[in-house]
Amino acid sequence: MLKSTIDKATGFEKRFENIGTVVFNNSKSASKEIAQEIASLIKVKQSQKQPCILGLATGSSPKGLYAELVRLHKEEGLSFKNVVSFNLDEYYPMEPDSVNSYVRFMQEQLFNHIDILKENCYVPDGTLSKENIRNYCDEYEAKIEALGGIDLQILGIGGNGHIGFNESGSLQNSKTRLVALDHITRVAASGDFSGLDKTPRTAITLGVKKIMEAKRVILMAWGESKANIIKESAEDQVTSRVPASYLQEHNNATFVLDKAASSKLTRINTPWLVEKIIWTDKLSKKAVLSLALDLKKPILMLTDADYIENGMSDLLADSGPAYDINIKIFNQLQNTITGWPGGKPNADDHKRPERAEPAKKRVLIFSPHPDDDIISMGGTFKRLHEQGHEVHIGYQTSGNIAVADDEALRFASFVCDYNTKFGIENTAATSIYKKAAKFLKNKKSSEIDTPEVRYIKGLIRRGEARATCHFIGLPDAQIHFMELPFYETGAIKKNPIKVADLKITADLIEEIKPHQIFAAGDLADPHGTHKVCLDAVFSAVKEIKHKKFMDDCWVWLYRGAWQEWGIDEIEMAVPMGPDQVLEKRKGIFKHQSQKDGVVFQGADSREFWQRAEDRNKETAGIYDSLGLAHYAAMEAFVRWHF
Ligand code: F6R
Prior knowledge:
Layout: E1 20-24, H1 27-47, E2 52-56, H2 63-76, E3 83-87, E4 89-92, H3 102-109, E5 121-122, H4 130-146, E6 152-155, E7 177-180, H5 183-190, E8 202-205, H6 208-213, E9 217-221, H7 227-235, E10 253-258, H8 266-269, H9 281-295, H10 304-309, H11 313-319, H12 322-334, E11 362-367, H13 372-386, E12 390-395, H14 405-421, H15 428-442, H16 451-472, E13 479-481, H17 499-512, E14 516-520, H18 529-544, E15 554-558, E16 572-576, H19 578-589, H20 608-625, E17 633-640
Parallel strand pairs: 1-10, 2-3, 2-6, 3-5, 6-9, 9-10, 11-12, 11-14, 12-13, 14-15
Antiparallel strand pairs: 4-8, 7-8, 15-17, 16-17
Helix pairs in contact: 1-2, 13-19, 14-15, 14-16, 17-18, 19-20
The structure holds fructose -6-phosphate.
Fructose -6-phosphate binds next to loops.
C-alpha cells in the first residue's frame, strides 16, 4: 500500500495535513504506484476467490493509471476477470457512444484493453428519462452494497474541491443523484464540448456517502492548477464548500500528488514551519520574502522578533542579526531588476541578470500561440528591439483552434466578395474559400473544421502576430511561423510531440544561433500546448547543446497568460513605466480575434490585455511592498540552465 509520508514519531506533518499525502516527482511514477496497489488488491481478492470492487473516475488525472493497468494486463498478465467496476459519474443527458461520454472514455482508456467482463462495468446511464433517475440511482447504490461495498475508490479532484460531481455544497451523507454542475466545472469541461454553451449543465454522480464508505480511497492530483485546492482539502477545516475535505474523516484515504500539486502544502511551501531544515540560499530567500509579505513589511523593516515569532529563529541564529539577513535578501532582489534584458553594454555585469557581451545579441523568442510573446513579455520584447538586439520570434503553433467560426466566415466572405467584384470568382482559389464559407455556415456543434477552414483561421492569427511584430518594429525576415505538427489536429486534444516538432525547433535555433532564447515556461500544466511547446524547446536545446554557438546561449523562461513566477523564483524582472504599459496594450490589441469573449475564455472573464496588465502590475506591486522601487509594471523571468 502507498505509504503516507507523515512521520509517526514526530507527528510533524500532522500539524498541518489532516490526511495522508504522498508526493511523487511526476504523475507517471505516481500512477505506476497506484496501479501496483490496485494490482495487489485484485490478486489478493483472486486468491480469496472474491470479486474486487473498484470505484473508478474519469478526467485527465486517471489516464496514466489506466495506461499502466493496461500495461500490467498485456505485459504481466494481470487479469481483471474478478473485477467489478462502478464509475463515479456521467454527464446527463449523454448518449453512451458520444465522444464525450464517460462510457466511451472508460472503454477507450481501459475496458477495451483488458479482460474485464463487460457486464461487470457499471457507468451511470445518461440516457434515462428524468423521472427514472431517482430509482436508477438507488439501484446503483444497492448493487454496490450487494457486492459488499467498494474496496478501492479512485478519485480526481475538481478545481473547486469536487469529488465525483459532488460540487461545493454537497453534504457528507449525499446520495447518488442528479446534480447541477458548477460553472467552474463546466468551464473546465468546455474545451471537450467546443464551448461553454454546448457543455452539459447536469450529471449523475455517486454520492459522497458511498465514496466515504469505500474501504480505501486514493485521490490523485497533478499539476499546479490543483495545488491550492489540495492544500485546502488536506489542511483546512472539513467543509461542504470543499467536498474533498470530507476525506480527512475517512480512515484509509490518501492523496497521491505530483510535486506541482503538492507545492502549496505547508510542509512543502514553508518547510521551516514544520521541521528543522538546512537553510540553503534559496530557502532563506523564500522564507524572508514570505515573512515580509505576510507581515506586510518592507524587507529592511523586519526585526529579530519577526524572525523569532515566525519559526525562523534558527535562521536568525545561523545568519543573523535580522539587519544582515535583510540586507542580503534585499540586494539579491534588487539585482534581479534590470531595464536591460539583453544585458547593459559596457557595464559591470557581475551582479546583473544578463551578460554585457556581446552588446548586440541575437534573440529568439518562442511563442507557443501567436500572442504569448506580446501578452507575457511584450515590454521586454519591445525593449530588446529598441536596445538594438536582433530579435526573432518563433511562433510555435498556428493557434487556429482559438478563432471563432463567425470570424473565419467574415474573412472567407471577404475574399469571395472581393473576387466576385473583380470577376475572379470562378478560380480554384475562390472555390476553396466558398467551400469553407459553406462549411462554416452549416457547421454542427463539435464538428472538426475542414483543413481549409483551419488554414483560414491560422491565417487570421498569422496576420495578427505579424501586425504585433510590425508594431514593435521587426522586419518580416525575423518572424518565423513554425506550425508545429503536433498542434494540427483541429481538436482540443493534440498529438504527442514527435521528431518532426523537435527538428523544426532545433533547425530554427541553429539558423539563428541566438545568444538568448525566451520560452514560455509553464512547467506544471500537464496537457496544455505551452507545456508541449516548452518540451520541444528543452529537447531541441539538449540535442544541440554541444554545438559551439550554444556555449554562448542563455535560456530565459517567461510564464503564460495565467500565472507568474513566485517572487522568490524571479531572476530577471524587467520594469515598465506607465507609457510602456500602454504601448504593450496596443501590441496586444493587434490580436483582434482574441478579444471580446474568446473561444476559450476559461473561468477568467478578463480580456488578455487586462490579465497581462493586472499580472505585471501585481509583480511591480510586490517589489514595491517589499521596499524596492515603485514601477508601473514588471515582467518576470527565470533562467533555465541546460
Ligand atoms: C471524473 C470526476 C471528476 C474529476 C475531476 C478532476 O469522473 O468525477 O471529479 O475527477 O473533475 O478532473 P481532471 O482529472 O480532468 O482534472
